[in-house]
Amino acid sequence: MSILRPFKASDMFKFNNINLDIWTETYGIGFYLSYLSRWPDLCCLQEAPNGRLMGYVLGKAEGSGTEWHGHVTALTVAPEYRRLSLARKMMALLELVSEEIYKGFFVDLYVRCANSVAIGMYEGMGYSVYRRVREYYGSLGIGKGGRDEEDAFDMRKPLARDPHRRSIRPNGRDIIVSAHDVS
Amino acid sequence: MSASSAALERQIRPIYDALDTGSNKSAIVTCNKLLKKYPTNILLKALKALALIRSQKVEESLVLCDEVLESKPTHDGVLTAMMHVLRGLGRHNDMVTMFDEAFKKSPSNEELGCQTFFAHVRASHWKSAHLIATRMYKTFQDEKYLYWSVICAILQANDISTPPAMRPILFQLAHRLIQTSPNPSYISADRFHLHLSLLRQLGLYDEANKLLDSDVGKSICATNLSCDELRREIWQLQGKVKEEGQRAELLITEKRDRNWLEFLAVINATFNEEDSDLLKESVQKTQKIFTDIAAQDGLKDRSALLALIEVEQRAHERGISQSPPVSLMEEYFEKFGNKACCFEDLKPYVKSALGNDLSHWTSFLESKLTVPETIPALQEVINALKLIRYGLTASEITLESELKRVNQYAKLYFETISLGANLPSTELQPGDDLVLLAANALISAWKLSQSTSHLLTAINLLEFALTKSKHCFLARLVLIRLYRILGAPLPALEHYRALNIKQVQNDTLSHLVLSRASTFSLASMGDLTLSTECLEATQIYLSNSQETGDFIVRAFNAEKYSQIPEFIAFEDRLDTSLQRDSVKMEHLRMRLTHEPVNSDVIDMELIELKFIFDRVHHDNRDFAIFPNYQPNVSDSLNHQTLLFGKEEGFPWLSAFLKIYIRILQQASDLDDTVEEKLLIGDRPKPAAESVTRASLSERIQNFTPEELSTLTSEETKLVEYATSLSGWLGPYHDYARPPPSVVLAEAAKQTELKTGHPLKGIEVPPINGNGQHKKDEEPPAVVDAPESVAKHFDGIRERFETVKTSDSVVDLLHVATLAQEAFILLVTESTRFKSSSVVKMNKFGALATNLKDLKAAAQAVLKDISTELIKRGESFNNAEARKACVDASNTDISAYISHDFILNLAKKISDSRYKILEGVGKGIVRVIALHT
């Protein structure tokens, strides 16, 4: 049982069980407030009935012309609430709002190339790799995971406004751009 | 543009560049150079003031700042620079005046109007912000300003300084205004939200329904969670339970919505029936719907099955169903027992539905306790163990049974450790919860037996688990608590650092190491680790006051009205955070152990503490984060592992504030009138109800039973001591304190010496002769110290003798550090009477002797305590102590862990105990030297 509701500023007092996890970054308060002050409808969370937070998503709308789209900046679920399709539900809302309110052509997100579990999950939700962004996650030298650790896949899912699916391409994994070329 | 002004502009640009890159020094140099050429240029002065404030040269900046303000600037660049200066000084009220004046001079400047509006917003002047927005709407005809004026009226209504009787009037005003909007509010979701929240507030449900039932209204609620949240509330307030249920049912069945709120809506509608036959029918109907959904969803979604449990439980409560939902709970466990959340999901039903009849349920769970061979199977066993433990009755919780459980959990942990062997090192291990369960049981065993050996065993297990699962933050949280209880603050701090606490987490989690941190402080020895930790943890409050206002302004600009009250509440919760001020208190307690008590320290701290005392505090501390797997009938893990078993909450803070404010007030020369004149910047806003309150000095004299109940017995003794001490010395302070005119004259002299400018706005009356003053009354007769003061240190000596023999290091530290604190309070109280001229003039010779004797007696006791602490510390600095530590831990468990590992931990604990005892011991001697 999970409650889907808007992410509010005061949820920052409650997100420790999500953010103490190694994969979730805690940013300055300005980061969260800047999203909430512009795209509050693209920020939501899942909460257990006892008030414990389970996961959240922060998104924004950006781009110009046919590149106008919804972007997933952060999507995270606390360790104890994984494998419950919570991410899927939050993504569904973000896609709905990107489509109906922002009239975007697609939704996109970045994921570490090494994170095959997440990539598989997003593929299951209809996302596909659009391009590979070199050194998106910083260039700290090649680690154990090789380039896959620092490179990101930019994954996209076309929305109704893109009926011909022009925002995606089949050979996205082979298209490599540098981090400077993306916003 | 004239040639010279173009030249000046070119010359000013480098100043901006320097300011942008943080080269404040070079900005000042350039300013000075240009000021020689253009001595009256206001922009240069404003920029110099900014550079000065950024180089912490507050006093010099103030002079320039006042000069610029006096010129009533209108120039864009000057206003912007001054905005930053005044924000840096916390002078929002002056900023408001500055913009007001400028806007008055050019009322058609829309940009300036906005800036003025935002200045009021930043200062939370909702009333005047409302007026400005109204005026701007009239002048510039932008609908946005109308909505600004609406929300400002609402914010004013909700402000603490607004009298309750004014509130409804303001809401009605806002309502009247919103109705005048040329365009309907539904053209934007956030305007719509604002409109709805106003209607909800005023109870105008018909009007709200009209908005909500319109097609646009429906479509907004379908895509905007915030608006839908409001709609839900408004329907609920109208008692539209049935309609809400029907709406939710459609969402669940047709749109496949699985939001738990929709299920709850259907359930609430189902039970909104008085007649028992009708109720039965409606329950059956709902059960049918949910059963179908549950079958459809299978293992994909757990909501429908849980909803069935909820229905059956409520049916049971209402007497329609004979039995509690045990069989459904079992079905749920069979299906979702391999998900980590199963325990949390079923917990409420174990508590409320099953009551005392847990036997069937427990035996079902026990049948699940097989040796698991896969990770999901292990998760299922863990859930069964957690649920069994949660349901334990009081009689089942004995030392023996708890230790048996410890072995059960630990054995299973080590047997299944291989299941997670192939996971990447960044992943959590599937068996981590077993160690946490064992730690819970060991802590319970410690509570039952008072034997710290169980805590040592818990540490061994948790530390071992961290070697396998290095990111298991839950283990670290428990370890921090345990190490502190054992008097080993160093490893506690290491684990805290490993948690990588950042930003806002400093507010919610710094309590882990900073609550009663002065117990472990070595500041007296010059080791400022904890003191620095306090300062670092409070950075977040600075960012809050610097940044959050910007985002409130941004939310206004972007018209995100749903967010504005949230941001304001957030800002306020951080600004008036309990943790913030508890840390401040701890920091002061540590500060006085390494800094001499002089009038600067006394005055500054006093002013700050007084501000804090009248705050309405918010407790943002996160205790829910602890892995609490204790039985429902037991105390929570958090509660069990509090240092000294006492929470450091509002009453604790209030008690310590009272002690310190009273003593600092007596030691200080500042009375309220002087303080009012010397203090720069804004004062905290008084709450509407504060008018009827007693004066501060009255309020700090007495301690409430609630305050006393959160203190340790040693802290209570300190309160009694401090109260008698200040009660005794109060009259002498009041008599000997120089009159306000003398204090002001002295302050003016000091300022002029420092900055070369006289103190502004203060008229110093001429003083006769050498600055001494004659009193009309005779000095109060000197009496001996009351017994509670005179005998305080004797009492400490006795209590120290008792704790000396116990094995609790932390109790020893507690008595010692509070003895030291009592001494520092005595020193603070007697600073005034150190001066021989004060003593002579006021005929306080007997008092001075009295104080000297008291201090000497206190020092004697402190020196003995110091020697004893050092001796006790030494006893931990050898192999025997480590061996004792190793031997104390549970042998059944140590069999699984290598001897070296346990020995290393023992060494870590002993070393830390040695260091802290020796440090505090030696520190006491330094404190005596510092304050004598």
TrEMBL record, chain A:
InterPro entries noted in UniProt = Acyl_CoA_acyltransferase (IPR016181), GNAT_dom (IPR000182), NatB_acetyltransferase_subunit (IPR051646)
Query: Which keywords appear in this protein's UniProt record, sorted alphabetically?
Result: Acyltransferase, Transferase
Q: Does the keyword Acyltransferase apply?
A: yes
User: Domain N-acetyltransferase: where?
Assistant: 2-160
Query: Pfam families annotated for this entry?
Result: Acetyltransf_1
The keyword Transferase is annotated on this UniProt entry: yes
One Gene Ontology cellular component term attached to this UniProt record is: NatB complex
One of the record's GO molecular function terms: protein-N-terminal amino-acid acetyltransferase activity
Name of the protein:
N-acetyltransferase domain-containing protein
Write the lineage as a comma-separated list. Eukaryota, Fungi, Dikarya, Basidiomycota, Agaricomycotina
TrEMBL record, chain B:
A cellular component term, taken from the record's GO annotations: NatB complex
Give the span(s) annotated as Disordered.
Answer: 758-781
Xref: Pfam families: NatB_MDM20
Q: Which InterPro entries match?
A: NAA25_NatB_aux_su, TPR-like_helical_dom_sf
Q: Which family does it belong to?
A: Belongs to the MDM20/NAA25 family.
Give the protein's recorded name: Actin cytoskeleton organization protein
- Per the UniProt entry, what species is this protein from, by scientific name? Panaeolus cyanescens
**Phylogenetic placement of the source organism:** Eukaryota, Fungi, Dikarya, Basidiomycota, Agaricomycotina
